[in-house]
Amino acid sequence: MSDDAQLLNVVDVEATCWDEQPPPGAVSEIIEIGLTVVDLAAGRRVAKHRILVRPARSTVSAFCTQLTGLTQAEVMRGVEFAEACRLLAAEHLGGQRVWASWGDYDRHQFTRQCQATRVRYPFGHRHVNAKAAFTETYGLRKRPGMARALQLAALPLEGRHHRGEDDAWNIGALVLDVAARGGWPDAPPFAAPGPVGGAG
Questions:
Q1: Which of 12, 57, 164, 168 has a 20 to 30 A CA-CA distance from 103?
Q2: In whole angstroms, what is the distance from residue 131 CA to residue 104 CA?
Q3: pTM above the 0.90 mark?
């Protein structure tokens, strides 16, 4: 395997959601974290991980199950959000490796949930918006969804769409496609949240 500096964490999350407004008092919470490790130097995906997360202020709706395949019973077997963040930092080197996601939703969801729960943010200051990199590399006017991007790149959609572990794996393939075309950017720094509270 190449030097760890060439390893990239591709992250995709699924969160509780509803077809209309959330029930009173409920908030959207991460229920699954998919993580694929991409070796940019070797040009391949080298690991696939999944962390199920137990929601504390919401439940999995029928709409959410239809979209993701995840059920309330399944996510209740997951870990608490604070433990998920600890695993990302300790076992997956979240604070050390550059990470990428399809768009900025995943980064913003982590930021919001870490601040709301006073949990230490598990990532560092370098993140790449893979959707933006793909759009620029292909010279597109609009940023495509992941499934459409796979079609444009003539890549298969492996597994189930809207399942975090499978989406992260597919995004990893798109990252490698962009990198092979010379379009993968250096990770720009951003203002990641500072340490919050004592959790994690």
A1: 57
A2: 9
A3: yes
Tokens 């959601």 locate to: 17
DSSP state of 10: E
Q: How far apart are CA 159 and CA 199, in angstroms?
A: 34
Length of the chain: 200
Residue at 33: amino acid letter: I
Structure tokens belonging to residue 150: 């796979």
Q: Counting beta carbons within 10 angstroms of the beta carbon of residue 146, is it exposed (0 to 12), middle (13 to 18) or buried (19 or more)?
A: buried
Looking at residue 70, the DSSP 8-state letter turns out to be: -
114, 120 Cβ separation under 8 angstroms: yes
Phi, psi of 168 (to 5 degrees): -60, -40
What is the residue-level pLDDT of the chain in tens, covering all 200 positions? 445 668 999 999 999 999 999 999 999 999 999 999 999 999 999 999 999 999 999 999 999 999 999 999 999 999 999 999 999 999 999 999 999 999 999 999 999 999 999 999 999 999 999 999 999 999 999 999 999 999 999 999 999 999 999 999 999 999 999 999 999 998 766 666 655 544 43
Distance (Å, rounded) from C-alpha 127 to C-alpha 24? Answer: 33
